[in-house]
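Appendix C reproduces, verbatim, an entry submitted by the partner laboratory led by Prof. M.T., so that reviewers can inspect both the input and the predicted structure.
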Amino acid sequence: MDKYIAEIAGKDSVAAILSFASDHNDTEIIPTVVITGTEYGDLSSYEKSIDFLRLRLEDYCVVMTDTIYIQDGALWNLMNARYQYGIYKKFHFFTPCIICHMYAHLLRIPIYRKYWAKGLVTGERKSHSGKLKANQHSRTIAIFDRIFQGAGIETIRPLLETKESVAVDSLIDDKDIIQHANDVKCVMSGNLQGFSLDQEEHISLLDKYLEEYVLPVGHFCAEELNNKGYVEKEGLEYLIKEIINA
């Protein structure tokens, strides 16, 4: 039976798994929850979503295993917090959301390898009813693909081109899950107020940050996690300081 790793986050990830399962009968899905340390709210909503999925996936003869929770606070801090000022000084741009999103994918690599998974299912969407998000922008997704494809990881995004949130709700078709799947929030939500992902000058700042910071940091971490199962922090810190001239 083919195995797939699945992202469990909010409503989009639930819908993505349902969409994927409908076309991949007789498979096994391993649900994973990555803790960043910036969450607040009802964390039990993750398990409620998983219980819902476990029952619904029976219709497709898809087995959902026990949930795996993952966290590496020291890695998150090093990639995304310790050098915030230096990153902003270098690129005239910073948001924690892009690296945080990549961190979540990266931490799944050892699980991917352990279970010989065939793919990682995520709920990423380019547009959320017209709203663009930096961590799921088409340019960001392209950088993620370069990182994870280079590491031999197949990222499966069933909802990538799904623009309208009503289509997500229709896939889930359960009022309680639709209402509560996004109960876990982030303390850093809304940190890009005033930064328009429609303006050319802002996109150029995003591109430079993605190419010169996110890409090399992502490549380094993916290679470390692929080969060792963990990221050697001293090597990563050296790389970051070299990038930002610290």
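The chain has a mean pLDDT of 95. Additional entries are available on request from the coordinating office.
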